[in-house]
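REQUEST ID: PR-0412
SUBMITTED BY: lab tech R.K.
PRIORITY: routine
TASK: structure prediction, single protein chain
INPUT:
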Amino acid sequence: MEELTVGEYKQVIKACKDIFMKKTQDYGTAWRVLRLPSITDQIFIKAQRIRSIQEKGTQKVNDDISGEFIGIINYCVIALIQMNLTEEDPMEMEVTQLEPLYDKHVKTTMELLMDKNHDYGEAWRDMRVASITDIILMKLFRVKQIEDNQGKTIISEGVDANYMDMINYAVFCMILMGAAKS
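STATUS: complete
OUTPUT:
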């Protein structure tokens, strides 16, 4: 099963990275202007839209919710990249500069997934997409609280671990919705 998960995970991330790279070519790195709380709010908007559609059972804007999960994944990667850049780093970055950063954060996040997946025995495969959406929202509220506390925690993991968890949960949703065809 682990091999299947790795293959599906890589397929989802490949699609997300493709969109990220194309949008970077279209828009540049305009996201560099965003502070972490603003990135968190962008992720929140996407997760809230997914939940709203799940609860209402209908939608008025035709954008598929899989696109929102892709947005969650890519904004979480943006947050992880942004956390490691400084104000001395350029606002505008080339795709060739960003690609290795994207790959580095995805690799670390996938390693976290595999460690957790080993311990939890792929329990996520028996979860509902709506439940995973709720967990993503819970992680967002945790991140907002940590941000409101200026990044200080007493016992909890930091925002980076929460961003990585949200990436993994969003990938799970994409897999469960059939976005990763083997």
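NOTES: The radius of gyration is 16 Å.
REVIEWED BY: pending
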